[in-house]
Structure formats: structure tokens, C-alpha cells
Amino acid sequence: MTERPAQRTPNRQLAALIAEAGFSNAGLARRVDQLGLEHGLDLRYDKTSVTRWLRGQQPRGTTPALIAEVFTRRLGRRLTAQDLGLDACAPVYAGLEFAATPEEAVDIVGGLWRKDSGSHAELRKIAFTPAGLVVPSRDWLIGRPDERVARAEVPVRIPAQGRPAPPRATTAPDPSRRRTAAERVPGQRVTGGDLAALRSVGELFRSLDDRYGGGHARQALVRYLEHELEPMLRGTYGEQTGRRLFAAAADLTRLAGWTSYDIAAHGLAQRYFVQALRLAQAAGDRAYGSYVLVTMSRQAVYLGHGREAGQLARVAQQGVGTSAPPVVQTLLHAAEARAHAVLGEVRACTAALVRAERTMESARPGDEVPYWARSFDEAQLADELGHCHRDLQQFRAAAQYAERSLHLRSPVHARSRLFCRIVLATARLGLGELDQACQLAAEAAGQAAEMRSVRATEYVRDFERRLEPYKDAAPVRGYRDRVAALG
């Protein structure tokens, strides 16, 4: 790329940070290029480019912000372009930032919604970044609560993605665009009815996700966030209403991430989870923030990043302490156990499972349980235990817990039952019960064919990979025939 003429003063700030980060010039250039790809930019910097920056040359455009983000991820603390001795520029939002203010959080997540609504195929290709988990989880844990979220008016602002934000309510309407009387306009006051509607929308999309998979209505949810929720966040509201609004936004954004995760758009899902975490902080809801971290941990487990998954689960535990209801504590301990299991850490996994079972036993019928934790019941705990024992190749215990979960779990949780059925099939296979294993897996494969869930398909494929040593056995041939008949 074309650079400005070199300045005479060497950039000692950048040199010091390169040394602290342990980057070579080529290594820094490569990381800037990779980060640029996350934003759809083809930068093509090299070690010579970095040498020029060190001599005082200023990168053009948004590159200073990208360089700052590279160092932020590497060093685990927030750095700006000015901290690197570079010119200030508008921020470049990749969706992995933990915003400094509620207003910035709305800009970032609103831009993400709009981009996803308009070009979701491109976003699905964004890679999951384990390093991108560190700064947001740390900032959530040690960051100061937002003192104020109320909005008396909506200022005009241009989000980083380039589309103008909605104008304030006092702006004259555009005569070229007709607006129905019922349509929400920017700057409109948020009401209790709006908040109730957001909760209902969440329940609807959660139900569709559970029954039919994340791909069934994900795009409809994203469009709802863009066209209905963003105008509310840019509307007017008092402090109490604002906190509730941000709580609803956190919940729906986490759900958008969950459905993205289910269709294997893992980089996009990660960005939704990070923004849901920041919105939960604006809501002042520490417990829900821990739930978002657990969701991030589950994705990391699924992708095989056990170490990062364990760290996220422990940060969630530190963030809420022992004040959370027993069911929430059970959920957090179970998430840590899953991380240890995928790493093959038997002792640590067992200890976490014991803590999970003890906290579940301490729950009482009269306990106040957040709505998002009510689905974590005995069936879900048995499911977690089954997965852990499967990963540790303790197949007899895995089979016992998977059977218990299937016995207790409601049919409305169709995808969760499918996963558990595959865990049971895998356990039966590990115990040498080939006929039962293939029968269970064939049932699950039939269910997966009716869903729009990449995770469901991957569970079935994982079982099929385990069948390879038995490929000539009659039950396996029968299984393959049944699956082939599904098309």
C-alpha cells in the first residue's frame, strides 16, 4: 500500500512494544494482514513495511487501528494507535472488542447486526480466534460497572461499518420514505411493552432453535435485531428501563451467536458472544455475563480448545462468586468439567463434576432462578456427565448418564436429545455393543436430517468415524444403508 513520506523521528514507542510482544518485523506484518482479512481487507504488508513504520512513516487509513488491535490481543491490555506512536484514526470494529462505553457497545453490535443481515455468507467464513477470548473475558472480570445507561436524546453518529446511524427523533422525516404509524422510529421512547415483546421474541427463537436447529430462523432473528432492537437502543429511556433493555439485547445477541455456532459460523458466533458479554455488563447483570462466558466455553470445547474453555469457565465462576443460585453454580462447574474432559484431565474433571453435583443437590424448590438457567435441570446435568465420561472414554458411566438424561429430557429439546443419543451410541460402541450403537445412531441420523444444524450433522459424523474399525460388520452395513436411504 502507498505510505506517506517518512518522518524524521524514529518511532520508539512502536519499537518498544514490538520488543515487549516478541514480534519480528515479518511476524507483525503477517498478523496485521491476518487481522485485515477479518475485516475484508487485502493489505499485503511485509517486514519492509514495518521497518518504514519504525523509521517514522505513518500507515494510511485504518491500519494504525489494526496494528493497535494486534498488540492488544498479544499483550492482553487495550492499546490505541497513539500508544504505538501512530496517528489516531477511527476505530475498526471486528466485533471482538469489549467496548469502553455502552454507546460504543451499541455502535459495535449494531454494525455487526447490519453486516450479518446484509452479507451473512461472507461473515460465515470468519475464523474462530482463541486469542480473541482473552481481553474480553478479562475486561468483563475486572472492568468497572457502567454508571449510567439512560438516554435522553439520540445523537447522530456514523458507525464504523459505514452506514449512518439512525438520526435523532427531532430530525425531519425523509419524504421519499413512507413510514407506517406502527413502525418504530429512531429516538422513540422505549416502553414496558417493548421489553415484554423482546422477551417473547427470545422465547420464540429459542424454541425454534431447540426443535429445528439454528439455521431455521437465524437470519430472521438477525433482521429483527437490526430493524427493531437497534432503534430501541438508540431511542430514549430512563435508567431502570435502559438496564432491562440492555439485558434483553444481551440475551438476543447471545442467541444470535448460539444459532450461528449451530451452523458452524464459528468466527461470527464468537463475535456475537463477545458483544453479548459487553451488553450484559451494561445491563448490570453479572450472572448473565457468566452465562455468556459459559456459552463461549462450550464453543471452545466443541472446537477442541480445552485450555481456553477451562479459563472461560473459571473466569465466570470468579465473576459471580458464591452468591449465585445453586443451579447457576452447577452450570458453571459443569462447563469447567467439560473443558477438563476434552483435555483428558481425569482428576480435574472429576473434581469439577463433584462440585456440580453438590451444588445441584443444594438447590431448593423456592430458590430464585434466572429464566435462562431454568432449563439446566437434572436431565441437563446428566447430559453433561455423559459427555464428560464419553470424552474420558469411561463408557459404562457415559451410557448410564446418557440414558438418564434421555429418560428425563422433554421432547421439546429435540437437538439436545439427539446429541445425547449419539453420546449413548458412542458409549455402547465403546462397550462392544455394536447392534445397539448402530440402532441409536441411525435414529439420531434421521433426526439430524430433519434439522438445519451443522452440529447435529457433525455429531453423527463423529460417530461414523468411530465405526471405521467395524466397517465390514453386518450392523454397520445396515446402519449405512439406513442413512443412505435418508438422502
From TrEMBL:
Residues 159-186 are annotated as: Disordered. Residues 159-174 have a biased composition (Low complexity). This is Regulator.
